[in-house]
Input
Amino acid sequence: MTVGRLAAFAGLLLLGALTGVAGTLVQAAWFPGGLLLALLAVAGLCYGGLKATGARAGAVVPAAGWLLAVILLTPARPEGDFLFGAGVGSYIFLLGGTMVAVMCATLPHPPPPGVRPARLDK
Output
């Protein structure tokens, strides 16, 4: 693995964490629109990482950063503050973001342009 590829994966991990933090704040602030925006951000980052790196790890790494940030922000603080309320929007954000990340990581890869299939046509 080259240094550039490692740097790309480290950047995707950081972007995933930042997307998780931003999505946590936005999804509750502007309920229906913020939730949709947060889920679209996760989908865009995971799909963009997949296309940019050309490997499934390009979708898995930002999803891992997103999940780590969201899990760390889930528990309530000792002062009684919390970021996730007990509402349907929070659950949709948590489960929907996870499902979007899994969908992006399991998308089939079309063959690169110019590559012929191994099977000859009749």
